[in-house]
Task: structure prediction
Amino acid sequence: MLVLPGWAIIGMVIYFLYGYRHSHVGKGIIEVHSLDDDAPHRPVEDGPVV
Amino acid sequence: MIFGRVKSIDAILATAQKKALPRTLGALQLTLFGVGCVIGTGIFVLTSAGAQKAGPGLMLAFLIAGLICIVAALCYAEIASMLPVAGSAYTYTYSVMGEILAWTVGWALVLEYAVAASAVSVGWSGYFSGTILKATFGIELPSWLAGAPLAFGGIEGGLINLPAVIIALLVTWLLMIGTSESARVNAVLVAIKVTALTAFIVLTLPKTDMANFNPFLPAGVFGGFGTGIGAVGAAATIFFAYVGFDAVSTAAEETKNPQRNVPIGLIGSLLICTVFYILVAAGAVGTIGGQPIMGPNGIPFPAGSEELARQCAMAEHSAKLVCSNEALAHVLREIGFGTVGNMLGYAAFIALPSVILILLFGQTRIFFVMARDGLLPEGLSKIHPKWGTPYVVTAITGGVVAFAAALLPVGKLADVANAGTLYAFLMVAIAVLILRVKEPNRERSFRSPLIWFVAPATILVACSCISTCPLMRCWCCRVGRS
Result:
């Protein structure tokens, strides 16, 4: 069974073909998602404790 | 520099603040998430194999396995309290060891969550078609609707596994319409599981005979290095009855007061499961005994071996706990609660979709964060304006899981799925240690005690288990949650 090595190779191929080139960190982008106007912008402060 | 792509903790928190998921989950719901994913069918079927390795020391084995997982959970709890965002081990690795290693963790978790979700869907389908529809209602599903094609490892005359597709799509729809709605359904399913186990404990514990616990450790604690028997060997077998608690950390971004509630959910769910498992083991062993069937050299026959099967076929052994395929139901039948025993089996499988739910939930949150970081198409990270869920990635993931469950031999892949978890454990433990050194003064609302023991112990367990995977087929993954 070479499932895991096979899976890892597929993952690396996708990373280098897409992720590496589009990575926000790679592009020096920190503030992102400004194109997505649908996204609700919510602060991350804590809600009430349940 | 490919390894220089590290996303700082502040940057991760800033990104999450910019596009956060709604915080709707509390400590109780998170704990139920953990219990829902941990208690699958493992406890219902692993008890026999554990008893064959450890005898009555099965209780000790459950304790050892639980402690190992709690040690890993402490690492998760500390880092999740620092980084309360979705993505779990992927995000933690990104913040400490960089993008490429983070990608490998995220990709490994995809394998774990997606394959396991498909496999559990197929397992549920088999029980639904066979026991619920056929045996109970006398309805036989046409074979072309009951399984994948034979050429793909399915059944004779099979075309599509329709019940598996339906349950996978149903859970996907639930996850799309809201996290709190999913949490409510999960709570009901967890209640069914917990009720079943509680009923088992209540019925068996009063009937225990202390003589059944003697000798307590017929194969010893360690059982000899590499033999896989004894309490430690049994703990390795049942270790995977606990796997799944890490999915709790993927919900950190949707949790109210995550710095407090995520550690509670992680550790609380494991403690609950450990106590249940030990009590279940005590009830099973105490009532009908749990002594292993010994070979001629005084060493227990290996669990699952042909020789053990031959021994179990003999009349003198057939009623033993170690010979049962459905240990808990068998115990109840043996002590005169046959109907309850049958109902226990029903409850175990009826509640199984909670495992699918949490696995799919974890999968979508990891994909969501990877898309938010640009490593996957950004459209995947869209949040629904009304439901507040990452609906695009949820729909796609659910569709892929349903497709795999319908047509592919996912059951054969399930035994390697847990290797992703071990890899994630390893990376999280390393990340916690690095952060203790690099950012000692950063606020941690939860600090793991004895971190210089806890994290190395987690690394040791993960490495030892991964290293026993010849050609990446993990021996200890043969008994997964499904």
